[in-house]
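Moderator note: this is an archived Q&A kept for reference. The question asked for a predicted structure of one protein chain; the sequence and the answer are reproduced below.
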Amino acid sequence: MTATLFIGNAKTQTMLHDFDRLRKAIREYDPEATEAAWANCERWVDCINPTATEELRRKRAATMNDPKEGD
């Protein structure tokens, strides 16, 4: 199985790995690991919108790696 591009340089397997780490930390009742894993998952949350149109997904993906003012 090959990973396909998801957002910018990130790959779907990166997203899946992040969420797997979160699931594992939650199941192990480890609050520190859960917080660290969630920090990695947060970047994906805004990208997951089951009602989004293809146009909106492409627009968000195109701007995902743009630096924000003041960063």
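Archived answer notes: The chain has a mean pLDDT of 76.
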